[in-house]
Amino acid sequence: MFHKIMATELLVRDLARCTAFYRDTLGLEVNESESTPDSVSLRMENMHFFLLEVSGAAQMISDKPLELKIGEGSRVLMAAGVADVDAAYEELKARGVTFLKPPTDQPWGLRTAYFADPEGNLWEINQPVRAK
User: Fold this and answer.
1) Is 101 helix (H, G, I), strand (E, B) or coil?
2) Which residue among 15, 61, 63, 100 is least enclosed by CB atoms within 10 Å?
3) Can you give the residue ranges of every domain in the chain?
4) pLDDT one-digit tens code per residue, 4-14
5) 74-132 under CATH 3.30.365.10, yes or no
């Protein structure tokens, strides 16, 4: 049945604000050819990543009037691998990202750090723990 996840579409209230954060602060490139007035496609290696305004999502997934509500806080945690968590942490902090937790070695074998986007969606950056 399902063989792979093709895309991640993050529902947002303020598309312009979130686009600025992902493009200008996180440094992701906008793919104009796949973006629409209600969505922005961002380039990420090996996956499609979209920001989708809630009103546009409602029209996309239903032919009948539909009110999608997104509550406060996050309902998903996006995890992104990086070459060096400590370097990425320092670079993102310098760009204005506020971290919830600094780089930490986890018992499951990853070094992780956590932050949230402007709408509270949670992100983890990670790398395998280096052998000591």
Assistant:
1) strand
2) 63
3) 1-70, 74-132
4) 777 888 999 99
5) no
